[in-house]
Amino acid sequence: MIVKKYSTPSEREKLYDRLLHFMAEIYVSTAGKYPAMEWLPPWEKPDPNAPNFFEEFSKKYGSFLKWRLTQELDEVYLAFIDDELVGVVGLNYDLEGKTIPWIPEELTKRKDVGFIELFAVHPKHRGKGIGTTLFKMAINRLKELGKKPHVVTFPDLDAVKFYEKMGGKIIMKFDKFLIYIF
Predict the structure, then answer these.
(1) CA distance 126 to 109
(2) What is the dihedral sign for C-alpha 134, 135, 140, 141?
(3) Which domains does the chain have, with CATH numbers?
(4) For the purposes of burial, counting CB atoms within 10 Å of the CB of 56, is it exposed (0-12), middle (13-18) or buried (19 or more)?
(5) Alpha-carbon gap, residue 101 to 4, rounded angstroms
(6) What is the pLDDT of residues 14-51, one digit of tens each?
(7) Shortest CA distance to 107 belongs to which of 174, 154, 153?
(8) Residues 6 or more apart in contact with residue 94 via CB below 8 angstroms
């Protein structure tokens, strides 16, 4: 497995098409739980079984993904086996001036906080250590930057078990989210 780092907004913007397809596959594999698209009412979320699924997914998730890649996230790491994208993780650590609806304002004002976001492993590659490798790498990178690693997640995702296995402790509930520290 090779992991590549993308640090600049222009580098990350070039990932858009590939990541949009990847995240659509993740959405299908989680039966529409992730990405959650929590801004949409349930009846407006793309149906993973619809014949025009990818078109609907692109319309409803595409602009959000573009915002994440160009404005929200500070670094994105992609994991590849050969040329196949098998995993992704994003880091958000330069929080000053950012308004991120799922991060409480008191955490965005702190200089010692960083977030692991946009974390996913392709369904056919789960259980092979890819997620663990990416996640440990993300924790180490945030610590290297002097940040305490955090994750914001929904309580009903399978990822919750993974975060707890990785040593995460819930420090707060915020709106419909759980916030873990590592």
Answers:
(1) 35
(2) positive
(3) 2-181 (3.40.630.30)
(4) middle
(5) 28
(6) 999 999 999 999 999 999 999 999 999 999 999 999 99
(7) 174
(8) 74
Judge whether 57 and 25 are in contact, CB under 8 Å: no
Cα end-to-end span (Å), the chain: 25
**What are residue 156's phi and psi, to 5 degrees?**
-95, 10
Token pair for residue 162? 């993974």
Tokens encoding 132? 């663990």
CA angle 138, 142, 148 (to 5 degrees): 115
Q: Quick check: pTM over 0.85?
A: yes
pLDDT at 151: 98
Which residue is it, tokens 């392709």?
122
User: Which helix H or strand E contains 163, and what residues bound it?
Assistant: helix 159-165
Q: How far is CA 110 from CA 53, 88, 98, 115, in A?
A: 40, 25, 12, 12
Residue pointed to by tokens 């996640």: 135
Q: Distance between alpha carbon 41 and the CA centroid of its chain, in Å?
A: 21
The model's confidence at residue 155, banded by pLDDT at 50, 70 and 90, is: very high
